[in-house]
Amino acid sequence: MPRSISLSGRSLVGGAAQGPLLFADVGLSFWGGVEPGTGEVIDRHHPLSGEYLSGRVLAIPSGRGSCTGSSVLMELISNGHAPAALVLVEPDEILTLGVLVAQTIFQRSLPVLCIGREAFAALRGQAFARVENAALSLFKQLPDDAWQPLDNPLPDTVASASIELTEHDRALLDGRHGKAAQMAMQIVLRMAELQGARNLVDVTQAHIDGCIYTGPASLRFAEQLVQWGANVSVPTTLNSISVDQRRWRELGVDPALGEPASALGDAYMAMGAQLSFTCAPYLLDSAPKAGEQIVWAESNAVVYANSVLGARTLKYPDYLDICIALTGRAPLIGCHLDTQRKARLQIELPALGALDDAFYPLLGYHIGALAGSRIPLVYGLEQYSPSLDDLKSFGAAFATTSAAPLFHIAGVTPEAIDPLQVLEPDTCIPVEKIRLEDLLLSWRELNSARNNRVDVVSLGNPHFSLSEFAQLATLCLGRHKHPHVVLAITCGRAVLEQAHSVGHIAVIEAFGATLVTDTCWCMLGEPVIPPAAKNLMTNSGKFAHYAPGLVGRKVHFASLKECVDAACSATASGRLPVWLQPAVQLESPAHV
Prior knowledge:
Blueprint: E1 4-8, E2 10-13, E3 16-23, E4 57-60, H1 69-79, E5 85-88, H2 93-106, E6 112-114, H3 117-120, E7 128-132, E8 135-139, H4 167-173, H5 179-195, E9 200-202, E10 206-208, H6 216-227, E11 236-238, H7 255-270, E12 295-296, H8 299-309, H9 320-327, E13 329-331, E14 345-348, H10 359-371, E15 376-379, H11 388-401, E16 408-409, E17 431-433, H12 436-446, E18 456-459, H13 466-476, E19 486-491, H14 493-501, H15 504-511, E20 514-517, E21 535-538, H16 541-550, E22 554-557, H17 560-569, H18 582-586
Helix pairs in contact: 1-2, 2-5, 4-5, 5-9, 6-7, 8-11, 10-11, 10-12, 11-16, 13-15
């Protein structure tokens, strides 16, 4: 047998598997980064772009981005396109939860192993890997006898005795509140054990991300809960679904998507969730208050709730969100605790000129990649007073490239008005100094289009707010879009009604815009995006990142004003914003 390297780590999900090693030192969002029907990596910014996961041992530092990654991984396990095993640097709740739900619903699994950063570095250059519970063997050449099927029994679901349970918890676990609540409690406790929680905490509300349709498995999971009598135990809102439930036929959506996606939304409402269908639940009247313990999924919503509202939630994976909503109980760890909300990275910004609204999503995108799973504290915006819309767009882009559920901005976000309050006393944390040239590189990364043509202008990722509608109406007043350009805005039903009542929508529709509710640009495709369209334009850092992989189009990223101007001319100006122009002179010749 060829020489092997033997490593060990912490088994997050037990089992045995082997296969060719697929290695990357960059985290991967399974939602928006992996095609659930085929297992292809479709994140065109990722080093594994174009690779297929099926049958391979996938080694990445962690997941990142969307909470829906758990749903995509469950879908891959269900349809046979999943990796053989996952090897991670650090525990990842989103990916692990997808495996646990697949065990519960489909009796299929794969091993998940966490080995730490030092051991992870040894994987580079290896060709084959074998995972057996906590053990990892690496090979440069295919072993003669290593690739026979391995026994991979499913684990039991007995809860750990190390977690303190109330009498109500035990009643849920014993099935006295029905099978759905029992299954939900089993999953909550398995995750609590993996996360190292000793106690559970009551939550006051939930926001469910699992209502996004990723394939037949996602619908089967929800309908199974309904058959088991599931009812939410706390007020629960629903994230955007995959179609405009009232208008998907009118918009030309294929019934093969429209019918199951709509049925999935109905299934969650049958459990008692509210018909909200928005990725921006912080715009609803039910938004939580500072210090409130909640369970929210949807990455941008989690980051906004923690950072801007001061509420307490983890970046909950799809399906763990509904399990906690059914039980009302969550693991008392992470951002639910004061000590876990401290900054782990300090960011210093360069001198900045006059800013437009493209600055904040670009900065969030850049800082998210720097931060990884660390909570950052950002200095340098104290005098700019970013608006709630600015913080919304910053947080959504930050959540796209980061695994962290929280950011602090000195003098701006509530817990960092005094930045010393989010720093551990007598603790030295690393400092990253951002240069304008660094932001220019991220600008070019988001601007993937190679000509000035604009076919579609996409607005509302995350969903538009009332103040964004007001700004858009001002830009559109007395103008009309180019006949060959589609301008579409996604928003929640509640905000749309507010914008109608104050007259914004009449102006925007006169401009020629299309309004889409219930769903979001991360789920929209053809025919809302015309088949002949080549280039999109957006002011969303999140969508600028995901669009090349999700819809196969190149992107112009710019401010809202530039987007409206492009909708009128069908052409992107290609101008750098004023605040970024000095970076061209500062950039080294090698990058010009």
